[in-house]
Structures are given as structure tokens and as C-alpha cells.
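Tutorial handout. Part one gives the primary structure; part two gives the three-dimensional structure as C-alpha cells.
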Amino acid sequence: MIRPILIHPDPRLKKLCDPVTEITAEIARLAEDMLETMYDAPGIGLAAPQIGVMKRVIVLDCAKEPEAHRPIAMINPEIIWSSEDLSSYEEGCLSIPDQYAEVERPAEVRVRWLALDGHAQEEQFAGLWATCIQHEIDHLNGKLFIDFLGPLKRQMITRKMEKLKRERARQA
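Part two.
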């Protein structure tokens, strides 16, 4: 089921999410809905708080070619290692539509998470995958990519999002 994506500013996007204590059918359904919502948007990553669920769940698929799709659902993901090398990507966010900015982050990360089957997973990611995972984990900690920007640029984007929300509310 495609779920509505919260638009910044929304206080839920700035909150720390709770860890998932048990992987239930409800959590599996949440991950399924999140992937469907992400693909529909379209995007390459989505965190549970972006659809108003305050749990530590992210989904992503950074494969460029549809035949190479690699959807991943991560429960309670944590970065256990980051490279000293940095890379810069022009990031965007489904909760901040049509706004992009260069953000510098570690070029590689090693991540540990629980898969939907309850088994612990660990993998090293580089490039766009590493950027996306860091961006989505930031969401679980109440941080948005615009928090990496200077105050003027951040305020300008926030004002644009407030205007977008007013326009959408009038159309509803």
C-alpha cells in the first residue's frame, strides 16, 4: 500500500525513532509498504518517520537499472565503520520535494542491521549506496540533509516547503 509521505517542516521528521524490539508481520508489512511508496515516489530510499511511523526501519534500492533492482529493508540499522575518505553527492529527499544540495559524507560505510527474517546482516557500501544509507539513518535520528547546509539555504528551503504544504492543503 502506498502511504503518504510527510513534507518538511513536520515535527515527526525531527524526532529520534524507537528501535524495533520484535520483527512482526506488522513490521514486514511496513517495510513492504515503504518499498512500494519509495518506488512510486520515485526515490531510492525511505525511512519510516517519513510516513509518520517512528520506528528504526529504512528501505533502499540504489540500482540504476530496473533489472538490477536490489530492494533492501533494514531494521535497526547502525553504521559500525565509516571511511575517512569523503564523497560529495547532490542529495534530495522525498520529504523535501524538488530541492537538492551537495552534501559531503564518508565515501564508504559498514552497516549492521536486522533483516526481515530476524537475522543480523552486515555489509560494506560505497558510492551512492553509502550516501543513501547515511541519509536514511539520519532520518531515524531526526536529521535531514538540509541540516548539513548553511542557515540561509536551510531557511530558504524550509520556506519553500511551507508554501508547498499550504498550496497542497488548498488543493485538497
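Part three, for discussion. The chain has three helices and seven strands. Strands lie at 45-47, 57-60, 72-82, 86-93, 96-106, 108-114, 120-126.
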